[in-house]
Amino acid sequence: MGVEWVAGLMVLFAIVALAGAAVVFFRDRSWFLQWLRGTAGFVLLAVSVYLSLLAGSLFAYQQSSDGLPLATVSFVANGPQAWDVTVTEANGTSRVFELNGDLWEMDVRLLRYSGIGSIFGTSPSFQVERLAGRYLSLEDQQNKDVTEYNLLDEPLFGFDIWERAQEGGSLFVTPTRSGLRLLPVVDGAIVEVILDEGGHLGVRQANASSGPEETAAQEEAPASAE
């Protein structure tokens, strides 16, 4: 089941909870029953708001699919150690960044469904988090402009399911972060960022200028360990 189905179900549950809150609030009974209903109504209202925020946050994530890239990254030189980098995500969103350096890195946030969330499937959802450039020499790294970009969208009302799960745990998702580290930049290269069978990030070439056919990710760790 895709992330859109998961988020859609949460929206449905939020509507049901909201309807329950309305019934509790507007039925006229004795004061004690009204107090009980009022308390239950506020609880249902809180559940509705929480599920709505949860669903809104899930809509910001994309569902990974076997064999399909999470993102396609292309490089075009625009000067010494300077590059125009185009990142095209699985949903078709494309952005261009100016990157300095000889190497590049990328981080991706992953939501792995666990516990009761496993009913939604085992394919993780993801967000491309960070793109950065690095220099080969320590002197360049210390003295030249270092570029690093946050690729995350602003979460709805500041609520992000990945960060909440990282801070306080979750009954149905496990947040992790996987990264590509210190990969060479090649003029004209087009590479695809993929998840391998073990759930690790890697890259594979999409054209003849991309270098080795496939490179595995250099790190992956639970978000709580970051």
Give an overview in words.
By secondary structure, this protein is α+β, with helices and mostly antiparallel strands. The protein folds into two domains: 3-58; 62-225, no CATH class. Helix content is 29%, strand content 35%. It contains four helices and twelve strands, in the order H-H-E-E-E-E-E-E-H-E-H-E-E-E-E-E. The strands form two sheets. Strands 1, 5, 6, 7, 8 and 12 form a six-stranded antiparallel beta sheet that branches. A six-stranded antiparallel beta sheet has the order 4-3-2-9-10-11, with no helix packed on it. A hairpin with a 4-residue loop joins strand 3 and strand 4. Helix 1 (3-26) runs antiparallel to helix 2. The longest helix has 28 residues, at 31-58. 31% of the residues are buried. The mean pLDDT is 81.
How many domains? The number is 2
| Topology order in helix (H) and strand (E) letters | HHEEEEEEHEHEEEEE
> How many strand units?
12
Distance between the termini: 29 Å
State the major sheet: 6 strands, antiparallel
Task: Tell me the fraction of residues in β-strands, as a range.
Answer: 35-45%
Number of helices: 4
Radius of gyration: 22 Å
Helix content percent band: 25-40%
Kindly state the mean pLDDT as a whole number?
81
> Structural class, judged by helices and strands?
alpha+beta
Gross morphology: elongated
Low-pLDDT windows of residues? none
